[in-house]
Amino acid sequence: MSHYSKYRIAIIGFGVEGQDSARYFLGQQSKKITVFDKAPKENLNTKEYEEKGVEFICGPDYLSGGLKDYDYIVRSPGVYRYIPEIVEAEKAGVKVTSNTQIFFEESEANIIGITGTKGKGTTAQMLKRALEAGGKKVLFLGNIGTPMLDRIEDADTFDWVILELSSFQLIDLTISPPIAVVTNIATDHLNWHKDRNEYVGAKENLWKHQKPTDTVVFNADDEESRKLAKHAPGQVLWFSTKPVDKGTYLSHGSTVIGPNDELAGDIYELQVPGDHNIANAMAALTTACVTGVKPLTAWWGDPHKNGEKFEYDGICGYKGSEHRLEEVLERNQVLYVNDSAATTPEAAVAALRSFKQAKVLIAGGSLKGVSFEKLAKAIQENNVKTVFLIGESKGEIQKELEKVGYKGGILTDFEDMENIVDEARAIARPGDVVLLSPACASFGIFKNYKDRGDQFKKAVQNLNG
Hints:
Elements: E1 8-12, H1 16-27, E2 32-37, H2 47-50, E3 55-58, E4 72-75, H3 84-91, E5 95-97, H4 99-106, E6 111-115, H5 120-133, E7 138-142, E8 160-164, H6 167-170, E9 179-182, H7 196-208, E10 215-219, H8 223-229, E11 235-240, E12 247-251, E13 255-258, E14 262-266, H9 275-290, H10 295-300, E15 304-306, E16 309-311, E17 326-331, E18 334-338, H11 345-352, E19 359-363, H12 373-381, E20 384-389, H13 394-403, E21 409-411, H14 417-427, E22 433-436, H15 449-461
Parallel strand pairs: 1-2, 1-4, 2-3, 4-5, 6-8, 6-9, 7-8, 9-10, 10-11, 11-12, 18-22, 19-20, 19-22, 20-21
Antiparallel strand pairs: 12-13, 13-14, 15-16, 17-18
Helix pairs in contact: 5-9, 11-12, 12-13, 14-15
């Protein structure tokens, strides 16, 4: 019988991770399992769980009865760690945990954890290619791939498990993986975190508990990362556009040199645009080399012909992910690009710099307590002829655009994606790019960033003429 069998479990939040928790504790034969969620019960997938004895407390007052009658609280990532109900229960002796913490405690897998304000998803995808090119058996879990606890029993049968981890998942993590990767540290989710220090501190948990023999990979071109690296207990490796002593760097502006000064390839061989993707590729390369994969193998993999073209299994063969600088189609010599996964100003700035052509930009969404000053400057400096602003952040972005003296068009009266795309088509000229790169989360108008991107793609594909 499992060591969780005698405990009463409270699961807060019943999204993907909450359901993963429920399945896990059912398998553990826990004494009592109760799910708490602020959504109406009829909106949740409860039937199969209720049939197995899981109880549900739902609705706006879902936590009014408190959580002190449980042994463990399992917090879903979207639930703030320090809400009063959790804090009060913790003071009463209830243990607070998460799927991420449980996975780190219970699994014997070799884990590579990746975090950062932007680029962690792309870096994870590139790293998977690099490791597999080197003959490694790799499992994606967490934000990319299968929920963690569903694979806790067999994760250790893989050479490496890659976890892409957000600050929500890291805020109370007390164990660090043997390899940690930090793409960059800016500011995000200040509508969730108490302040910037808490946000950065959450990220820091990914490497703070490492042993001296463990490794953390940092971005030497990122100021905050350089500061944080000074206190890292593990071995530090770097990736940079400039020469570094330990890690991956660019020589003569484009040649990628891996750890130990071994040649990997050239940035012009990458299939995805933008300086940020060069950084992502170098982060993935550095990490793959830590596991023993040679730089050339990680970069190229096994070249093979597909028709008349050569394709590559390694990093340079990565062609992008859905909703990340995804080229939807070109119509009347106008390129339509879906970058709906750009939910921070920094990600949108990187997208703007990825295209030299004149651009029609669609931006805005929910407010997360971040500054749009850098976004406004990037719009001003990167050949944006018109900006469509949507969502509750449109007023804040417009203020910043006015401050920097932006002279292009600003349209704020559109909310329906089909109408926005139709109007963008009328404004764009041959050679232009219509770019959805919101710089914000999508809460309010769309279900999530995927729904937003899907609506954009559907509207583009339905354009006439």
